[in-house]
Specification:
The chain is globular and about 40 Å long. The chain contains 2 helices and 11 strands. It is of the alpha+beta class and 171 residues long. The relative contact order is 0.18. The protein has 2 domains: 37 residues, no CATH class; 123 residues, Jelly Rolls.
Amino acid sequence: MKRFIVIVALTLTASTLALGQMSGTKADQDKGSQPAAKMADHGFFTPGDIKWVDAPPSLPPGAKVALLEGDPTQAGPFTMRLRVPAGYKIAPHWHPQVEHLTVISGTFHLGMGEKFDQSAGRAMTAGTFGFMPPEMRHFAWATEETIVQLHGIGPWKIIYVNPSDDPRNKK
């Protein structure tokens, strides 16, 4: 019975959200009026559709990124993937916005704190989801090639705890 109630609640929620995204009534559209707002664009990406490019200079060299939705440098929602090679490390850092992370493949290790300490990390295998509030200090590494998906509200920024760890300062 509980499962049935949850399914009904989810269905009603999805229907309500879908209706809320509609712009204007059928009668308004029949009269030739313009919708109040456009429906959001959509996108589909098969693994072969994804275009990988070098990661921004705010990340250590060797990583690739693929932008799936939005623009992480601007205000608004974004979704991107990060592909890192085995042995890749990201020094302790934080973000001004909530960071959402889903491991797509491989194993991503994540630790909390201002010092890089692998013994304090946690292995996130494919399918694992995590999120961190704004300004939470954390660090990461991969022991094998790994792909993670990041999403959130931009602008996405990475601020290193120790400025000398910032790859932008190593030119």
